[in-house]
Design brief:
- Keywords: Iron, Metal-binding.
- Residues 18-126 form the Hemerythrin-like domain.
- Belongs to the hemerythrin family.
- This is Hemerythrin-like domain-containing protein.
- InterPro entries: Hemerythrin, Hemerythrin-like, Hemerythrin-like_sf, Hemerythrin_metal-bd.
- 73% of the residues lie in helices and 0% in strands.
- The chain is elongated and about 55 Å long.
- The N and C termini lie far apart (51 Å).
- The chain has helices at 19-40, 45-73, 78-94, 102-134.
- By secondary structure, the chain is mainly α.
- It contains four helices and no strands.
- α1 (19-40) runs antiparallel to α4 (102-134).
- It has a single domain (19-134), classed as Hemerythrin-like (Four Helix Bundle (Hemerythrin (Met), subunit A), Up-down Bundle).
Protein backbone atom coordinates (compact mmCIF):
# COMPACT_ATOMS: atom_id res chain seq x y z
CA UNK A 1 0.00 0.00 0.00
CA UNK A 2 1.23 3.49 -0.82
CA UNK A 3 1.93 5.83 2.07
CA UNK A 4 -0.25 8.90 2.42
CA UNK A 5 1.17 11.62 0.23
CA UNK A 6 3.73 9.28 -1.38
CA UNK A 7 2.81 10.36 -4.85
CA UNK A 8 3.65 13.92 -3.85
CA UNK A 9 7.25 13.02 -3.04
CA UNK A 10 10.29 14.16 -4.99
CA UNK A 11 11.90 11.53 -7.20
CA UNK A 12 15.46 11.67 -8.49
CA UNK A 13 14.25 11.50 -12.09
CA UNK A 14 12.97 15.07 -11.62
CA UNK A 15 16.52 16.44 -11.12
CA UNK A 16 17.80 18.93 -13.68
CA UNK A 17 21.35 19.00 -12.35
CA UNK A 18 21.36 22.43 -10.74
CA UNK A 19 21.41 22.29 -6.94
CA UNK A 20 19.39 25.46 -6.41
CA UNK A 21 16.64 24.63 -8.90
CA UNK A 22 16.48 21.00 -7.76
CA UNK A 23 16.19 22.14 -4.13
CA UNK A 24 13.38 24.50 -5.09
CA UNK A 25 11.60 21.71 -6.96
CA UNK A 26 11.96 19.48 -3.90
CA UNK A 27 10.37 22.19 -1.78
CA UNK A 28 7.43 22.37 -4.21
CA UNK A 29 6.83 18.68 -3.59
CA UNK A 30 7.13 19.24 0.17
CA UNK A 31 4.40 21.91 -0.01
CA UNK A 32 2.19 19.61 -2.09
CA UNK A 33 2.67 16.80 0.40
CA UNK A 34 1.79 19.14 3.28
CA UNK A 35 -1.38 20.21 1.45
CA UNK A 36 -2.29 16.58 0.76
CA UNK A 37 -1.78 15.59 4.39
CA UNK A 38 -3.75 18.61 5.65
CA UNK A 39 -6.66 17.79 3.33
CA UNK A 40 -6.68 14.14 4.34
CA UNK A 41 -6.61 15.11 8.02
CA UNK A 42 -9.39 17.66 7.41
CA UNK A 43 -7.31 20.32 9.16
CA UNK A 44 -9.66 23.08 8.14
CA UNK A 45 -9.99 25.90 5.67
CA UNK A 46 -7.61 28.19 7.54
CA UNK A 47 -4.71 25.71 7.45
CA UNK A 48 -5.42 24.76 3.83
CA UNK A 49 -5.67 28.41 2.84
CA UNK A 50 -2.33 29.22 4.48
CA UNK A 51 -0.59 26.28 2.80
CA UNK A 52 -2.12 27.17 -0.55
CA UNK A 53 -0.98 30.78 -0.17
CA UNK A 54 2.52 29.51 0.62
CA UNK A 55 2.42 27.38 -2.53
CA UNK A 56 1.35 30.33 -4.70
CA UNK A 57 4.01 32.62 -3.25
CA UNK A 58 6.68 29.96 -3.58
CA UNK A 59 5.70 29.38 -7.22
CA UNK A 60 6.32 33.06 -7.96
CA UNK A 61 9.72 32.97 -6.26
CA UNK A 62 10.77 29.73 -7.93
CA UNK A 63 9.68 30.82 -11.40
CA UNK A 64 11.61 34.07 -11.01
CA UNK A 65 14.73 32.12 -9.98
CA UNK A 66 14.34 29.52 -12.72
CA UNK A 67 13.77 32.14 -15.42
CA UNK A 68 16.84 34.05 -14.25
CA UNK A 69 18.90 30.83 -14.34
CA UNK A 70 17.70 30.00 -17.87
CA UNK A 71 18.38 33.55 -19.05
CA UNK A 72 21.94 33.42 -17.67
CA UNK A 73 22.45 30.14 -19.50
CA UNK A 74 21.27 31.75 -22.74
CA UNK A 75 18.45 29.24 -23.14
CA UNK A 76 16.67 29.94 -26.46
CA UNK A 77 13.31 28.56 -25.23
CA UNK A 78 13.10 30.92 -22.25
CA UNK A 79 9.96 32.59 -23.64
CA UNK A 80 8.18 29.22 -23.67
CA UNK A 81 9.10 28.71 -20.00
CA UNK A 82 7.88 32.20 -19.10
CA UNK A 83 4.53 31.57 -20.85
CA UNK A 84 4.08 28.21 -19.11
CA UNK A 85 4.90 29.73 -15.74
CA UNK A 86 2.45 32.57 -16.35
CA UNK A 87 -0.36 30.20 -17.34
CA UNK A 88 0.28 28.07 -14.29
CA UNK A 89 0.22 31.08 -11.95
CA UNK A 90 -3.06 32.18 -13.54
CA UNK A 91 -4.59 28.72 -13.00
CA UNK A 92 -3.22 28.63 -9.47
CA UNK A 93 -5.11 31.83 -8.62
CA UNK A 94 -8.35 30.27 -9.86
CA UNK A 95 -8.13 26.97 -7.97
CA UNK A 96 -10.21 26.23 -4.90
CA UNK A 97 -8.39 24.39 -2.17
CA UNK A 98 -11.37 24.24 0.15
CA UNK A 99 -14.47 22.18 -0.42
CA UNK A 100 -15.26 19.41 -2.85
CA UNK A 101 -12.83 20.57 -5.57
CA UNK A 102 -9.77 20.59 -3.30
CA UNK A 103 -8.47 17.13 -4.22
CA UNK A 104 -8.84 17.85 -7.94
CA UNK A 105 -7.04 21.18 -7.51
CA UNK A 106 -4.15 19.50 -5.72
CA UNK A 107 -3.96 16.78 -8.40
CA UNK A 108 -3.87 19.47 -11.11
CA UNK A 109 -0.95 21.26 -9.40
CA UNK A 110 0.98 18.03 -8.87
CA UNK A 111 0.39 16.83 -12.44
CA UNK A 112 1.36 20.20 -13.90
CA UNK A 113 4.56 20.27 -11.85
CA UNK A 114 5.59 16.74 -12.83
CA UNK A 115 4.79 17.32 -16.50
CA UNK A 116 6.63 20.65 -16.47
CA UNK A 117 9.74 19.22 -14.81
CA UNK A 118 9.83 16.07 -16.95
CA UNK A 119 8.90 17.96 -20.12
CA UNK A 120 9.91 21.59 -20.38
CA UNK A 121 12.63 21.57 -17.72
CA UNK A 122 14.17 18.39 -19.10
CA UNK A 123 14.25 20.02 -22.56
CA UNK A 124 16.57 22.58 -20.99
CA UNK A 125 18.74 19.77 -19.56
CA UNK A 126 19.06 18.19 -23.01
CA UNK A 127 19.84 21.58 -24.59
CA UNK A 128 22.48 22.27 -21.95
CA UNK A 129 24.03 18.84 -22.54
CA UNK A 130 24.25 19.42 -26.30
CA UNK A 131 25.73 22.88 -25.77
CA UNK A 132 28.32 21.58 -23.32
CA UNK A 133 29.22 18.75 -25.70
CA UNK A 134 29.88 21.28 -28.48
CA UNK A 135 31.54 23.89 -26.24
CA UNK A 136 33.39 22.04 -23.46
CA UNK A 137 34.58 24.20 -20.57
CA UNK A 138 38.13 25.33 -20.92
CA UNK A 139 40.49 24.62 -18.06
Amino acid sequence: MTAVGDHFRWKQRFAIGDDRIDTEHRYFFHLLEELDLAMRARRGDEVLGALYTALREYARIHFRDEERYLAQAGYPELDQQIREHGRFLHHLKELEVNGPGAAAALAFVRNWLVEHILGTDQQFVRWRGRREAHHPARS
